[in-house]
């Protein structure tokens, strides 16, 4: 029996996320992002639709590559202003029971000791529904904001990330043994000190000697997301990730990436099933194909090609303003998102231009939307699952909340009728719902840091 398709909403604590310009649509409510009720209503809406989770993107810099200025990003609300996504999660968790929360945090600028405590706290408060999207950053503006002259080189960021992961694994998995917490009122002993251990880490980037400040949370280590699909990113994902986030390309290209990551994971002693692949998708649906197309044409009137260029320039590390409309763009050695440059080269050829790029940004991003009735969309999703090995989809918002209301009303019942989508939530933590266990398996590299865990 084929696996059920999994679904996350893909969003950001800001006005304009992926589909630039759509915040100007009269029915869009994303300008309410400062209102906590907007987010709690959002969480309840997704849980009613049996979404597995909401995946929060984040950046800690501004998009200032296009024209060497952040002005266009600020004017068009291209992921700025942007607030901390972690602050939303306890409130959203308090009004839901099952919805998972994947949150992006940039390890380059996070103290591992304090970050480990923050994630354990969220795992406790959500009763085991927290996930971490591991990123190393791609914006020079973020590096400068953190006091650096510029970014660390792309592959070097992953070397730093490997050490960072080793350190937080020690804190989450190895500092407190199972059974350390007694909470014995009669004896007055809350925890057995002999089962709480100092982490002693000395590496090229970090030196830490400390116990983890939080007692073991339901998952200990949060569910681990990772979005790199470059050669170095794929190796990192094969070692650490449980859920790998890919942007949509051609089906054969995605299948190659999926097979490669799973093959590398198996080569490291993990099972292929230890990794689930989630693909980014933008869906516009309605009762009929014609009505969906009509809605798409309406949305296009509000899309911003300028905003899309701002976002693309930053994510690729290329200032497109330096090129004429049909002048071939020199990609060079990017220190931004290498896989984005590689994907663009695959789709447009090595001699791609601003005109070719703009031709793909029909809805304010490089992600071409899927437009159609519930039957059309459901079949596309099933085809991606069956032919490319994709486990789930991160659905980027267009006009909110109607984009998710439409999906829940139209596509979810169609998938359920075909046996491709759950009809109720399974019990347990985020990881247990997806993988059948609260804790990381013994085959994961984090298990080597456990003290006396079963």
Could you list some keywords that capture this structure?
TIM Barrel; alpha/beta; eight-stranded parallel barrel; 454 residues; two-stranded antiparallel ribbon
Fold topology:
Layout: E1 6-12, H1 36-48, E2 53-57, H2 71-76, H3 89-94, E3 100-106, H4 112-125, E4 130-135, H5 140-145, H6 154-174, E5 181-184, E6 189-191, E7 199-202, E8 207-210, E9 223-226, H7 231-240, E10 243-246, H8 251-267, E11 276-281, E12 283-286, H9 289-300, H10 305-316, H11 338-348, H12 354-359, E13 370-373, H13 374-388, E14 392-396, H14 402-417, H15 430-435
Parallel strand pairs: 1-2, 1-14, 2-3, 3-4, 4-9, 9-10, 10-11, 11-14, 12-13
Antiparallel strand pairs: 5-6, 7-8
Helix pairs in contact: 4-6, 6-7, 7-8, 13-14
What does this structure look like?
Helix 4 crosses helix 6 (154-174), helix 6 packs parallel to helix 7 and helix 7 crosses helix 8. The protein is built from 15 helices and 14 strands. The protein has one domain (6-176, 199-304, 368-448): Alpha-Beta Barrel (TIM Barrel). Mean pLDDT is 92; it is low at 333-339. The chain is an alpha/beta fold.
Kindly identify the CATH topology: TIM Barrel
Question: How big is the Rg?
Answer: 22 Å
Q: Topology as H/E string?
A: EHEHHEHEHHEEEEEHEHEEHHHHEHEHH
- Portion of residues within helices: 25-40%
Structural class based on helices, strands and sheet pairing: alpha/beta
- What is the tally of beta strands? 14
Q: Which CATH architecture would you pick?
A: Alpha-Beta Barrel
Q: How large is the count of helical segments? A: 15
Determine the mean pLDDT.
Answer: 92
How many domains? 1
Spatial gap, N to C terminus? 31 Å
**Biggest β-sheet description:** 8 strands, parallel, barrel
Overall shape: globular
CATH class (first level) name:
Alpha Beta
Enumerate the spans where pLDDT stays under 50 for 5 or more consecutive residues.
Answer: 333-339
% residues in beta strands: 5-15%
Strand order of the largest sheet: 1-2-3-4-9-10-11-14
Spell out the CATH superfamily. Luciferase-like domain
